Amino acid sequence: MTKRNNLNILFKSVKPDRALELLSLRTLKKLIEIEKVQFNELNLLFCADIFIKGLNRNFRKKNKPTDILTFYYETGLKSGLTGDIAISLQTARRQAKETGHSLEEELLVLLVHGFYHLLGHDHIRKADYVKMKRKEIKALKLL
Q1: How far apart (Å, rounded) are the C-alpha atoms in residues 136 and 112?
Q2: Residue 14, Cα to own-chain centre: how many angstroms?
Q3: CATH classification code of 2-142
Q4: Which of 22, 80, 83, 120 would bridge 72 by S-S if both were Cys, CB 3.0 to 4.6 A apart?
Q5: Under the phi-then-psi rule, with left for phi > 0, alpha for psi from -120 to 50, and beta for the rest, what region is 3?
Q6: Cα(26)–Cα(23) distance, rounded to whole angstroms?
Q7: What is the DSSP code string of 31-96?
Q8: Which of 44, 48, 42 is nearest to 15 (CA)?
Q9: What is the DSSP letter of 5?
Q10: Residue 59 burial (C-beta neighbours within 10 Å; 0-12, 13-18, 19+)
């Protein structure tokens, strides 16, 4: 585990990877800078399908693995946000292979997506999807 500026990178049921840790820290710091937000604590968990499947089942009532889950916490503090992003490395690797790009590129897409969920964006309605997608594309260009 690494703790720097309230950004924590954790690995559960997968081998820790220093390169992914550094990529993630750099990406999250840049996203925080782009959006001019503060976090009390932002945790990123890289895990295996079996672990994220349990989270997905417990929190979303979907008994299957997914690529990413985000959790935002109301802390009562006004100085910043607190949240978690969980990413299945197994699913991310499969998706990278299916789309023909690297794991690092897939993780950038997932990190940006999860970050905007933490800021309150979603993609349930088409208008919200379009708004969130525009923000993601703009952020990816700046990374």
Answers
A1: 6
A2: 16
A3: 3.40.390.30
A4: 83
A5: beta
A6: 5
A7: HHHHHT--EEEEEEEEE-HHHHHHHHHHHHS--S--SEEEEEE--S-SS-EEEEEEEEHHHHHHHH
A8: 48
A9: T
A10: exposed
Q: Where are the domains of the chain?
A: 2-142
Give every CB contact of residue 63 below 8 A, 6+ residues apart in sequence: 53, 56, 57
> Does residue 3 register a pLDDT over 70?
no
pTM of the shown model: 0.89
Q: Which percentage of the chain shows pLDDT scores above 90?
A: 69
Q: What is the pLDDT of residues 69-97, one digit of tens each?
A: 999 887 666 667 889 999 999 999 999 99
Phi, psi of 28 (to 5 degrees): -65, -40
The pair of three-digit structure tokens given for residue 56, joined into one six-digit string: 């997905």
| 116 CB neighbour count, 10 Å cutoff | 21
